[in-house]
Amino acid sequence: MAQQKSGEPRTLRTSVKGPLMFSAFWAVLAFVATLIFASGGSAKTPRFDLAFTAAGIAFIVILVVIAMLSMGHKPNDESLGKGSGINLSSGNSGHGGHPAQSKPDAGAPDAGPGDDIR
Prior knowledge:
It is a single chain. By secondary structure, the chain is mainly α. It is built from two helices and no strands. The protein has helices spanning 17-39, 48-71.
């Protein structure tokens, strides 16, 4: 919140509307699913008590998980995206950073399985 300037709209990370809408969607889904499946059929009365309980639990749990994930978010340092690693050219090295292997001489005998070459 220290990066927020007055008068500017909030970013997606600092806005509250997105997580509330996401939690509300899953709460409505949990309400409908529990109302349908907890009744045990259309001949019986709907269980609104279980449906409201499931919706409340889903809303709170999802909102807490989103809050924990947003608090744990830390942006990467700008220098990490500059490409200043040790393998700047992939043509000089083999796969996985190992040095390129030279091809064996044409006159050298091939090693079979079980031959110890050192």
